[in-house]
Every structure is written in structure tokens, then in C-alpha cells.
């Protein structure tokens, strides 16, 4: 996906001028359909682009970048938004795009370091991604048999440090 091809919502798209340029590029190339796969930022940007579309076309026409016929021809921009987020925090779906592959990578890493941790009788701490959502941490902890997991949805109780030290001593 975007990680491999290096795509991301560009900073200039956050400005009206950037969205105006994007609208001009789409009209110039005859593109009327977009499939936006991303998280909150990308989908919010796509929605704003959709809301501004007719105004962007009018502005392009006023600036002489497109003619009145193009305004009519490209009056509608169809956008499909698909949640692509490793956080798996979107209501109405079992798993968002990216969650399964992120979980798979976490388990691969744990498998790779488990033998080292056991042979050296060491404790390993693994931090996983997840902006404000502990889904990956929780599910990977369950899958890998972690002794402790910290997630934002369920902060640790008072005195957790002492309990952890007892467990580590064992």
C-alpha cells in the first residue's frame, strides 16, 4: 500500500490552494472517481475536498484554468472512502485495512526475539503502534502470551509497578 509506494496526503492539500491544484489536476486528467484509503487525516481531507468541489471548479473557471464546459462535465466527484488504519478503531467493521498485516508483523517480531529472551533469561519490553487505541497491543499480547500489557483504554491500577517487580523476580 502507501507504505510501499511512499504515498501520503501532502501538506499542500491541507490548504485551499493545494486542493485547488488537485482539482485542476483531476479535471485535466479526466478523473471523476477517487478511492481514498487512509485514516482520519486522509478521510477528513477527502470529505473537505468533496464539500469544496463545486467551489473549486468555479474558481478554476474564474482563473481561466478550465472552461464552462469542463465545469459542467466534471460537476460531480465520486469518492469512496476506505478506512486504512492499524488502530482498528472504526465502528461498523470487524477489521480495518492494515490491522491484520500490522498484527502479523508484531507476532513475527515476538517469535524472533522470544528465543533470545529465554536463552538470556531476560525480560523484553515491546512497544507497538496505535495512536489512541490499544487494539494491536491487546491482541498481540494475547497471541504471544505476554505477562503485561498497557493500553490507553484501561490504564494500569495504582501500584502496578510493585506487582510487575514481583512477576519479574519470579
Automatic annotation (TrEMBL):
<dbReference type="GO" id="GO:0046872">
    <property type="term" value="F:metal ion binding"/>
</dbReference>
<dbReference type="GO" id="GO:0005945">
    <property type="term" value="C:6-phosphofructokinase complex"/>
</dbReference>
<dbReference type="GO" id="GO:0016020">
    <property type="term" value="C:membrane"/>
</dbReference>
<dbReference type="GO" id="GO:0042802">
    <property type="term" value="F:identical protein binding"/>
</dbReference>
<keyword id="KW-0963">Cytoplasm</keyword>
<dbReference type="GO" id="GO:0006002">
    <property type="term" value="P:fructose 6-phosphate metabolic process"/>
</dbReference>
<keyword id="KW-0808">Transferase</keyword>
<dbReference type="GO" id="GO:0003872">
    <property type="term" value="F:6-phosphofructokinase activity"/>
</dbReference>
<keyword id="KW-0479">Metal-binding</keyword>
<dbReference type="InterPro" id="IPR035966">
    <property type="entry name" value="PKF_sf"/>
</dbReference>
<dbReference type="GO" id="GO:0061621">
    <property type="term" value="P:canonical glycolysis"/>
</dbReference>
<keyword id="KW-0418">Kinase</keyword>
<keyword id="KW-0324">Glycolysis</keyword>
<protein>
    <submittedName>
        <fullName>PFKAP protein</fullName>
    </submittedName>
</protein>
<dbReference type="GO" id="GO:0030388">
    <property type="term" value="P:fructose 1,6-bisphosphate metabolic process"/>
</dbReference>
<dbReference type="GO" id="GO:0070095">
    <property type="term" value="F:fructose-6-phosphate binding"/>
</dbReference>
<comment type="pathway">
    <text>Carbohydrate degradation; glycolysis; D-glyceraldehyde 3-phosphate and glycerone phosphate from D-glucose: step 3/4.</text>
</comment>
<keyword id="KW-0460">Magnesium</keyword>
<dbReference type="GO" id="GO:0048029">
    <property type="term" value="F:monosaccharide binding"/>
</dbReference>
<dbReference type="InterPro" id="IPR022953">
    <property type="entry name" value="ATP_PFK"/>
</dbReference>
<dbReference type="GO" id="GO:0005524">
    <property type="term" value="F:ATP binding"/>
</dbReference>
<dbReference type="InterPro" id="IPR000023">
    <property type="entry name" value="Phosphofructokinase_dom"/>
</dbReference>
<feature type="domain" description="Phosphofructokinase">
    <location>
        <begin position="1"/>
        <end position="157"/>
    </location>
</feature>
<dbReference type="Pfam" id="PF00365">
    <property type="entry name" value="PFK"/>
</dbReference>
<dbReference type="GO" id="GO:0016208">
    <property type="term" value="F:AMP binding"/>
</dbReference>
Amino acid at each position: 500500500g502507501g507504505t510501499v509506494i511512499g504515498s501520503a496526503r501532502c501538506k499542500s492539500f491541507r490548504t485551499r490552494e493545494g486542493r485547488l491544484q488537485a482539482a485542476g489536476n483531476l479535471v485535466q486528467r479526466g478523473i471523476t472517481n477517487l478511492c481514498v484509503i487512509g485514516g482520519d487525516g486522509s478521510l477528513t481531507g477527502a470529505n473537505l475536498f468533496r464539500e469544496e468541489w463545486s467551489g473549486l471548479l468555479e474558481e478554476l473557471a474564474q482563473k481561466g484554468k478550465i472552461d464552462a464546459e469542463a465545469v459542467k462535465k466534471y460537476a460531480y466527484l465520486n469518492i469512496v472512502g476506505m478506512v486504512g488504519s492499524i488502530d482498528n478503531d472504526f465502528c461498523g467493521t470487524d477489521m480495518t485495512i492494515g490491522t491484520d498485516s500490522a498484527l502479523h508483523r508484531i507476532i513475527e517480531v515476538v517469535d524472533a526475539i522470544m528465543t533470545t529472551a529465554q536463552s538470556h533469561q531476560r525480560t523484553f519490553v515491546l512497544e507497538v503502534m496505535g495512536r489512541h487505541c490499544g487494539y494491536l497491543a491487546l491482541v498481540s499480547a494475547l497471541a504471544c502470551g505476554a505477562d503485561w500489557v498497557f493500553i490507553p483504554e484501561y490504564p494500569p491500577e495504582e501500584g502496578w509497578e510493585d506487582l510487575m517487580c514481583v512477576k519479574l523476580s519470579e
